[in-house]
Amino acid sequence: MKILLIEDDREGAKFVIKGLSQSGFVVDHALNGRDGLYLAMNNNYDLLIVDRMLPGVDGLSIIKMLRAANKNMQILILSALGNVDERVEGLKNGADDYLPKPYAFSELLARVEALLRRNRENPTSSLQVGDLKINFENYSVTRGGKKITLKPTEFRLLEYLMRHKGQVVTRTMLLENVWGYNFDPQTNVVDVHISRLRSKIDKGFGKELIKTVRGIGYKIEE
Amino acid sequence: MRNRFKKLLHTTAVRLSLRYSFLYILIFGLALLILYWFITSFVQEQIKVGLTREAKKIETIYRNGGITAIKNYILSHEQFKDQDHKYYLLVDKNGNVLSGDLKEWPSGLKTNEPIKNVWVAEKDIIGKVKDGDGLWPMLAVKLGNSKILIGQGIRGTEDTRETLFAIMAVIFCLIVIFLIVLGLSLGKTILRHAENIESACSSIIKGNISKRISISGRNDEFDIIAKHINAMLDELERFIKQSTETSNSIAHDLKTPLNRMRNRIEMVLLGKEENLLESFEKMAEDTDKMIKMINSLLEISQIETGVLRKNWGKVDISVLLKEAVDFYQPFAEEKGIDIIVNLENNLFVLGSAQLLSQSMLNILDNAVKYTQKNGKISVLAKRKNDFIFISICDNGPGVKEEEYGKITQKFFRLDKSRTLEGNGLGLSLVKAVVDLHKAKLIFKDNNPGLCVVLRFESNYV
Prior knowledge:
Order of helices and strands of chain B: HHHEEEEEHHHEHEEHEEHEE
Oligomer: heterodimer
Strand order of the largest sheet of chain A: 2-1-3-4-5
Mean pLDDT of chain B: 85
Largest sheet of chain A: 5 strands, parallel
CATH topology of the largest domain in chain B: Heat Shock Protein 90
Shape of chain A: elongated
Number of helices of chain B: 9
Structural class of chain A: alpha/beta
CATH architecture of the largest domain in chain B: 2-Layer Sandwich
Number of domains of chain A: 2
Number of domains of chain B: 3
Helix content of chain A: 40-55%
Largest interface: A-B, 24 and 38 residues
CATH topology of the largest domain in chain A: Rossmann fold
CATH superfamily of the largest domain in chain A: Response regulator
Low-confidence stretches of chain B: none
Number of helices of chain A: 8
Distance between the termini of chain A: 25 Å
Radius of gyration of chain B: 51 Å
CATH architecture of the largest domain in chain A: 3-Layer(aba) Sandwich
CATH class of the largest domain in chain A: Alpha Beta
Helix content of chain B: 55-70%
Mean pLDDT of chain A: 88
């Protein structure tokens, strides 16, 4: 998987490149917008991580030009401009995800993995982790053949976890994708929702599928 | 003293009044000159008419009584000379004086000519001198072989002219003095007011922010300016106090987790920490808390500056509220709290769905946190008249009425809530969002508990 990072902050970039390389990605780096645009136009990257405020050409312009040239790699914006409007602006202009600075590297990694997964994602009629199964034909959830009744929110939560099977998803990602909230609530209510979901799909089934990743989030795997 | 006078001269009032005095003096002087000219030419005209009539009268006397009658007329006129200042001279064809007041016929004066101004010296006059050197209007008339001149002594008119001129000069001077005095006293009044404001301001500049401008109570324009400046200073002082408090709170709220982290790191470095993973997890939590607090602060100040109004849309707040309640439901259930929901449908407002959701979540968060186990929260949304009301009421310990104003301040936390999780920014954000949406945030006593009411103007029907 090839990633292009366009970021003018050398220290920040070094940190991201190191982290992503250790996770098995190949990372190219451009220090300004013009070089970044040139690299992105002339190579096939799977993912572009781009800062918004860049010397030369700014991040949004790069995205617009790439989309206009039918480049359809995944694009994640990393930016200090993090309010709702700026986020909407970024997504409207063709970005796939938006991560405001400051961010935790784990958050970035989780989002990168989720975006790259999206590429390979096929519309499926069912999802499965171990003996836990979602059937989208009748929206039913079963574990080991036993039917589990979930509330709509719990269903969406489980679906998101299962679509990112084996990947860490952060609380922020869950808030954004399950509830559509682009902010952190005062209390970590997500944890309560997870524990509810656990009590329905894990309790009494022996093996725990939903795992807590310390200080980062959750993942579902066998 | 000299300085003050210099300052006085520089006041707008003095400068303006001097400038206008000058203009006024010019105009008034011109007017006086014109008046003077009118009066003198009127007098000249009167003299001419008088001389012409006199000539006619003399011709008539001559026709009726000859030279003798004229001589008698001149003699009889002697006693009126003091009043009408008229002079006569009758000469025969050889130029010998027959009767009259002058010693000889002035050269250059001819009969049957229009009135002419002739120089008459004192020495030319016979008898008591009343009308000295000057240009006299004269008219000469031929009477048979003789001729007579009628002259108008001008001492009288000259006197009138001088008096008139003197009166005008005095009035003129009085007006100039009056204008200057008026200007100076106006300037002094203004200067006094200005110095009052100036001294208060310089005291404020020196750091005495509580200083205010004294108000005379006359309610004049200076009082109005002073009141405005004072109100501005009140607001400024409040703002400074508030931002000092805010930065103190930030410092305090950062210091606590930072200290904790520092201690944890020390334990790890000293090799005393057995569970490294747990220690790091705790540190991650602390940093998250700090980042969250700073993000919240930045967000609130962004909302307060009102830059977020673009990308607004039609939002159904009853849907947002329902989602918010669903989000908090499991949390409430864990505490055994019942949430009673009563929502009307289709309550549309113009706004930001994200910010409105966040506000409702913050209010619900407080409600759940402060309500005791097995408590009750009621959530209501309805339209009434032109307003949409959202109310979230709990039956927790409530808030004292005098603290309603404080709970929306940044970092303000009720004493009883210090032990609970939270950063004291929740309601500040709600307040900022509500203000941004031109809505109203109202607190009410729920006997017991607190009711938080949001009142929106309904933009969509």
